[in-house]
Inverse folding.
């Protein structure tokens, strides 16, 4: 029997790198991790990483973790958070994303590169920008699932059964994914 869990508090502060040259990545702080996929209740976690739907009550914890992964990747690249909060009305940057979309935000947001400030979109590769756009979609049903973000998977997979058929293929070296409903 496989057990799948949601972190519910994924953040850059809970990621440890084994060394500077690569190697294992460790996730720490299991205090809010759960095997329950669907949740009802108040949002928990760090304000920058909380998926927008968590503020509304009912949410899919797996998709909320996907959103948090997007924030982590952005923060690693830009050395800054994309926004300070995802609560409605709490952050102008996130309100801009909600209104105009992440790609438009990327063309406006600036980061320091050397001695210059440049738009993130000019510094980031188009494929990485696309990945972040998929991970940080406002609506969870529009967000990538982690399998869609891995090389060799296809977005045509419509169900966990179809995804697991791909995972059972001889070319796949990872784990099967079947969250409990």
């Amino acid at each position: 029997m496989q057990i799948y869990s949601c972190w519910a508090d994924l953040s850059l502060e809970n990621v440890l790198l084994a060394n500077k040259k690569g190697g294992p990545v460790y996730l720490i702080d299991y205090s809010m991790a759960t095997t329950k996929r669907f949740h009802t209740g108040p949002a928990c976690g760090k304000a920058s990483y909380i998926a927008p739907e968590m503020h509304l009550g009912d949410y899919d914890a797996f998709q909320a973790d996907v959103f948090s992964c997007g924030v982590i990747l952005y923060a690693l690249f830009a050395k800054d958070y994309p926004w300070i909060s995802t609560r409605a009305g709490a952050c102008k940057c996130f309100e801009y994303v909600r209104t105009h979309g992440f790609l438009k935000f990327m063309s406006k947001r600036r980061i320091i590169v050397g001695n210059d400030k440049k738009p993130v979109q000019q510094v980031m590769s188009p494929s990485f920008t696309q990945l972040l756009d998929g991970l940080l979609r406002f609506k969870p049903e529009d967000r990538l699932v982690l399998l869609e973000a891995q090389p060799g998977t296809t977005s045509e997979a419509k169900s966990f059964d179809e995804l697991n058929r791909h995972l059972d293929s001889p070319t796949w070296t990872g784990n099967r994914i079947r969250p409990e409903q």
